[in-house]
Amino acid sequence: LVAEYETGDTSQPFRSLRGEIEAVFQSTPTILRLIEVQQGLLAEIDKAQAINNTRVRTQLGQGYRVNQNASDGGAGAQSITASKPIYDFGTHKQTVSQAEALVDSERARLEIARSSALLNLIQARLGLSSASDNLELTKQFVTSRLQFETFVEERRDLGASSDSDLIRATAKALEAQGE
Hints:
Strand content: 5-15%
Mean pLDDT: 79
Structural class: alpha+beta
Radius of gyration: 39 Å
Low-confidence stretches: none
C-alpha cells in the first residue's frame, strides 16, 4: 500500500485514499508541529557547523585630522581580520552531534506520528468499508425475507401453504426489518 502510494501506481480506491492521506498529513497538528521542529533543528545544525567556519571582519574609516603643530589633512584607516578556531577540545563536534541526534529523534517522532495517522486512516477506511458491506448484506437479507413472505402468501392463496406459514414468514420479515 505504501509503495503504491509513493510510486503513484494505484487503482481508483487507492487514489482516493492517497488524497485522504495527504489531507491528513497536511492537517494533523502534531505532524505539522513536528515538521516545524525538525526544520528548526536543521537550522541549529547549520548554526553549529558554522561555528567552525572562518570569520572575516573588515573595518574602514576616514576622517579629517586637525593638528596644531603639523599640517591638517585627511586620515584613513583600514583593517581586515580573519579568525578560525584551531582546536576547541571537541566542543564543536559535540554540539553538531547533539543537534544531529535531536534531528534524528524528531524524524523518528515524525515518522511515528505519520504512521499512527496513516494507521488510523486505514482502520477508519476499513471500518467504513465493513459497515457498508454489512449494510448491503442486511438490505439483501431483508429483501429476501420480504420476497419469501410474498412467495408464502401466493402459496397460501393457491392453497399450498397455511395461514400459520404466512404468519411465520411475516414474523421473519418483520424481524429482519428490526421491527
